[in-house]
Amino acid sequence: MAAKTGNMEKQKGYIAHPGKAVERDARFAHVMAITLDPRTDHREGIIRCITSRTGDVEILGYVDRSELHIVRGDSPDHFEIGERLRMKHEDEIITRLAGDEFDFIGLEDPDIWVDEGTGLMHAYFTIPLRHKGGGGTITHVGHAVGRDLHALEMTEPVLMADDPKGRAKEVSIAPLNSKGFRYNLFESSDRKTDRYSTVRVARVHDMGKTWEWGDEVFHPAEHDIAWIAGHASPGPLLPRSFIDIGDGKLVGIMNGREANQHEGDHIKYGMFSVGLFLYDYEHGTIDWVSPEPFIQDSEAKTITFASQFVEQKDGKGLLYAHVDDSFVRAYTLDAKVIKDLI
Q1: What is the mean pLDDT of residues 48-56?
Q2: What is the 3-state secondary structure (H, E, C) of the chain?
């Protein structure tokens, strides 16, 4: 049966690795959202660790409190969770952003980008602030810069949510377009109902300064795609050296969730899966989203969520995704099969 499953996965463009690349330890019941530093041969990075959870992850209204920790690996399939990530100026910036009205519940959703021109590392992360009076949660995209993970300095957020329904999180870094700027992607929300997670673009001239809010480029309610009918969040963009689909365009990984379901007084979330999309980074538009999920982990009860891609040789690459917020798994992707699927 295992061989048959492996063949089926290979035909779909991926093979799930049997082990767990990152496992929770005695400190944390839940771990997720790994991102890796390419300059360490992807052996060091950041991971989000949940220090406490109130409520049920499948029911609207649960609250996670988080910390970002450094991870180190001795192979692509084995990482250990290390010390908490410390950033200069973190406390003063967070205190000012939260003020007296909001409760800061910990940094989330890290991403690493290295500026090849300067050699500096830029880290991005979600800054979630819960209104103490019950008015909801706002999320900003935070930023830090430094020579490596051990010398990061937090700056002002690069994207500030302008209202509780305009959240900003989960960035996806695009290449420079022919005009010399980037149309980065990020997860936002439906401004009218707040029932959906949507994808927007940010116009970026300087990766360390304020990004400009751009257009909404994918709204689940405007597409008849069941696996992503409720929530959409952009994942890694696959480099052209891995899959080449033409100038100004890339294949991307999309994280999508089925539509919310009403069960009595509760709203229950659907299954989170990993899909594919085509991105025109020259113009900042999403041209296509796969009609079916690409990956649903065999052990997942409700969540498969991708956060990091590492290109290898001979048309292969590693995709890292967390499963039910409990561990991270690696999947080998096959560029030729994926291109045939598209």
Answers
A1: 88
A2: CHHHHHHHHHHCCEEECCCCCEECCCCCCEEEEEEECHHHCCCEEEEEEEEEEECCCCECCCEEEEEEEEEEEEECCEEEEEEECCCECHHHHHHHHHCCCEEECCCEEEEEEECCCCCCEEEEEEEEEEECCCCCEEEEEEEEEECCCCCCEECCCCECCCCCCCCCEEEECCCCCCCCCEEEEEEEECCCCCCCEEEEEEEECCCCCCCEEEEEEECHHHCCCHHHCCEEEEEEEECCCCCCCCCCEEEEEEEEECCCEEECCEEECCCEEEEEEEEECCCCEEEEECCCCCECCCCCCCEEEEEEEEECCCCEEEEEEEECCCEEEEEEEEHHHHHHHC
